[in-house]
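WARN  no MSA supplied for this record, continuing single-sequence
INFO  ligand: zinc ion
INFO  echoing inputs
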Amino acid sequence: MRDDVDITALKAELEMRLRELEALRERSAESRDAVELDQTRQGRVSRQDALMQQEMAKEAERRRATEMQRITSALKRIESDDYGYCVKCDEEIAAKRLALDPAILTCIACAR
Ligand SMILES: [Zn+2]
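INFO  complex generated
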């Protein structure tokens, strides 16, 4: 267990981010459905627009899913007291690095 980082604060930040991502995911699921409905009464060009928007929404969703996975595993590592240690070399991850991204799993050396 690290005593040089405020795990409680970092955990709260991780949980907040996770909730934000979940809210974004729900909102974007609604807009993806909306695109679907509109296509039936739109011309070819706006249909292409709609498809492109849908593609972008899918890409955003993929990024969200990856980020949510990182956050979930960081939270699990807090539970098991492994948080703050690099998953590759087991060295401490710099406190500054954790402050910038609480979901980071590797030290700076292993990230390179
Ligand atoms: Zn490392």
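The mean pLDDT is 89.
INFO  checksum written, moving to next record
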